[in-house]
Write a structure and sequence with these properties.
mainly alpha; 118 residues; transmembrane; golgi apparatus; 2 helices; phosphoprotein; BET1 homolog; protein transport
Length: 118
């Protein structure tokens, strides 16, 4: 059993326009072609945009991996520094006070020297 679909069901022997008026059918075809071309250009634009997004994601992942390794090395450096500070704090309080005074004097002279040069 054949079903009547688009273009079927016209009078037998009339195969030229399948029961449609020629100008109306052509107008629909032209509109379909125009819409198809518009859709094709939009799909192409979205495809290029998604490719650019993919490249940007790869670059950002690479940057994040580099930052992660730098943070790991910084964490190790800070851990060693904190260990040294703990060792320093375990020593006598007089030694710590002496170091703090020397550091304060150094900072004071640096600030004095900067002000004097102005």
């Amino acid at each position: 059993m054949r079903r009547a679909g688009l273009g079927e069901g016209g009078p037998p022997g009339n195969y030229g326009n399948y029961g449609y008026a020629g100008s109306g059918y052509n107008a629909c075809e032209e509109e379909n072609d125009r819409l198809t071309e518009s859709l094709r250009s939009k799909v192409t634009a979205i495809k290029s945009l998604s490719i650019e997004i993919g490249h940007e994601v790869k670059n950002q992942n690479k940057l994040l991996a580099e930052m992660d390794s730098q943070f790991d090395s910084t964490t190790g450096f800070l851990g060693k520094t904190m260990g040294r500070l703990k060792i320093l704090s375990r020593g006598s309080q007089t030694k710590l006070l002496c170091y703090m005074m020397l550091f304060s004097l150094f900072v004071f002279f640096v600030i004095y020297w900067i002000i004097k040069l102005r």
